[in-house]
Write a structure and sequence with these properties.
A hairpin with a 3-residue loop joins strand 2 and strand 3. A three-stranded mixed beta sheet has the order 1-3-2. With 561 residues, the chain is an all-alpha fold. The protein is globular, with a radius of gyration of 28 Å. It has 26 helices and three strands. The chain folds into three domains: 87 residues; 108 residues, no CATH class; 320 residues, no CATH class.
């Protein structure tokens, strides 16, 4: 048989085999992974995340993905795929809603951004290498100063802008500056016409836009906080996060947990020699802190201690590489204005005073990062908390990062604080007081953040509550409130710690305390399922019957031990 006949026979054989095989189609996880890649790739093309072009393109992407998803037969899917279906559908609908809402804010401030579309168009044409009309570009850049003066005149006559509107103007302006910088880099020196006509106008326009963004940012006073969102919006967000309780219910749950903490605090206080005066005991343990330069070594020691304890109890699988891969950094003074203790995940970021802080702040910072407090939070950030969770989520069902929720991310780390307390990791009264302080703090976050968003408390009342009720140093209390209402955290983020932890605690009681799973099997299963809402994790491990439009229904608080 000659070569051509042999190749023809092989091709015919393969064609017949493929025709006889089941249709080769993407799995649902593949579809989600492709969608995530489309988002990543298109975001590099449509670089103005707040613009009509971006809104139109991504609205279309989400709607096409939703149509593809809903074309599947839900009943033919296995449990894991049904969970993906429910969560992807929920995410797509939410993404479309968010684009529509952002578009309304954008339209509401167009009067203050008359320069926006013309400047975006320069970059839009550049990305495909269109031959530039350099004189038109120069005239467009020259007009920026006049347009900014007109915009400021309109703003002077306009009603005060909301924080969302201010943020929109600043974000759009800064993204335009990045786009123009890209244009300058692309053409400067390569296109003589651009260099001749537009180089000077570019630098003038960029300076004017920078000043305008600063002016707009200045409309937000340093003491301003995000506007309370109200009860109905809170309920909407809670429903999206699969929490079947209203704001008032959550405050009641938090108060109940806080009362338990006070009882335990008094026990630890008595063991330390302070009777029921747990606040005096708390002040005492704040004195046990490292001197300048000593905090990093203490953190390393505490990280190793937690790993050894967890492995001795066989609570969860900790891969050797996970123990090797974490590292630490120091928080800057500015970062500590929003996070005075620790931040963590891939690494741990340590809060501790620097030499140029005022002496009073230095003292409060050291007292806030004492041994007892640190003993109960280092493992929250590292292993088995955020670091281990992130490590595993990269390796198992990584596409599910699309569905991540703080109730799962922060809830997992907080759950371990509660579990290790139960398992005896806090061996001394000092360590117990440190752990209970943090649990009180997470209860307090629910109480003050919801009362703020319900319009009942001011930020100052929230600060006072943390100082008087929980025992915070005023510096750390102000940082916590600033983090809640001045930063980029959503209105539910601060309550997600305790509520997510309680969800996992209730599920642990249902599955582990009942003997259906071991600690290790339960924890490994969670880490293998990704950062999905905990109610969906429960559906997975219990084999729950699901419907395409499944809504939250698991009232976990009634199932707590």
């Amino acid at each position: 048989m000659d070569r051509r006949c042999w190749l023809g026979f092989v091709c015919l054989f393969l064609t017949m085999r493929l025709a006889a095989s089941p249709a080769l189609t993407d799995t649902l996880p593949d579809m989600i992974a492709h969608y995530e890649s489309d988002i990543d790739d298109l975001s590099k093309v449509y670089i103005f995340p707040n613009s009509p072009e971006y809104y139109d393109r991504f609205r279309r992407l989400h709607k096409e993905a939703l149509a593809s998803l809903q074309a599947l037969s839900f009943d033919a899917l296995n449990t894991s795929d049904k969970v993906d279906y429910i969560l992807w559908q929920r995410t797509l609908r939410h993404s479309i809603m968010e684009i529509d809402q952002a578009g309304k804010v954008y339209d509401s401030v167009l009067f203050a951004m008359p320069y926006a579309q013309n400047l975006m168009d320069i970059q839009i044409k550049r990305r495909r290498g269109h031959t530039p009309d350099v004189q038109l570009i120069a005239r467009t850049l020259d007009s920026v100063g006049f347009e900014l003066r007109m915009a400021r005149a309109r703003l002077d006559k306009h009603t005060p802008l909301s924080r969302a509107q201010i943020k929109m103007i600043v974000d759009v302006t800064e993204s335009i500056r990045e786009g123009l910088k890209d244009v300058e880099t692309f053409y400067q020196g390569y296109d003589p016409g651009y260099t001749w006509w537009a180089k000077g106008p570019y630098h003038t326009a960029d300076s004017a836009l920078e000043a305008y963004a600063g002016y707009i940012s200045g409309l937000v006073k340093a003491t301003d906080a995000v506007n309370p969102i109200g009860e109905e919006k809170l309920k909407e967000l809670l429903n999206y996060e699969m929490v079947p309780y209203g704001p008032k219910d959550l405050v009641d749950i938090a108060n109940k947990q806080f009362a338990w903490c006070e009882v335990e605090m008094k026990k630890a206080s008595a063991a330390l020699g302070y009777g029921d005066n747990w606040k005096a005991a708390l002040e005492k343990i704040k004195e046990h802190h490292e001197l300048p330069g000593g905090q990093p070594q203490m953190v390393d020691n505490l990280a190793e201690e937690a790993i050894k304890f967890i492995e001795s109890k066989d609570l969860v699988t900790i891969p050797a590489t996970a123990k090797e891969a974490w590292r630490m950094f120091m928080l800057t003074p500015e970062e500590q204005r929003f996070a005075p203790f620790f931040l963590g995940g891939e690494s741990i970021l340590i809060g501790f005073p620097t030499n140029d802080m005022p002496d009073s702040i230095k003292v409060m910072s050291m007292r806030s990062n004492n041994y007892g407090f640190s003993h109960a939070t280092v493992f929250h950030e590292l292993i088995p908390g955020h670091n281990l969770q992130g490590f595993m989520n990269k390796r198992y069902k990584s596409y599910r990062w699309l569905f991540n929720t703080p109730f799962s991310v922060e809830g997992w780390a907080l759950y371990w604080e509660m579990l290790l307390y139960d398992k005896g990791f806090q061996a001394t009264p000092e360590e117990k007081i440190g752990a209970l302080f943090w649990r009180m703090h997470r209860c307090a976050r629910i109480i003050f953040s919801l009362n703020y968003h319900l319009g009942k408390w001011t930020p100052q009342q929230c600060v006072d509550f943390l100082v008087e009720k929980v025992g915070h140093e005023r510096f750390s209390a102000e940082s916590e409130v600033r983090r809640s209402f001045h930063g980029d955290y959503g209105p539910l983020y601060q309550l997600a710690y305790m509520m997510g932890g309680l969800q996992l605690r209730a599920l642990h009681h249902e599955m582990v305390d009942s003997g259906k799973m071991t600690d290790k099997a339960f924890h490994n299963a969670f880490l293998h399922e990704g950062v999905i809402p905990i109610e969906m994790f429960r559906a997975t491990i219990t084999g729950q019957q699901l419907k395409p439009d499944y809504g939250t229904q698991w009232r976990f608080a009634e199932m707590l031990p």
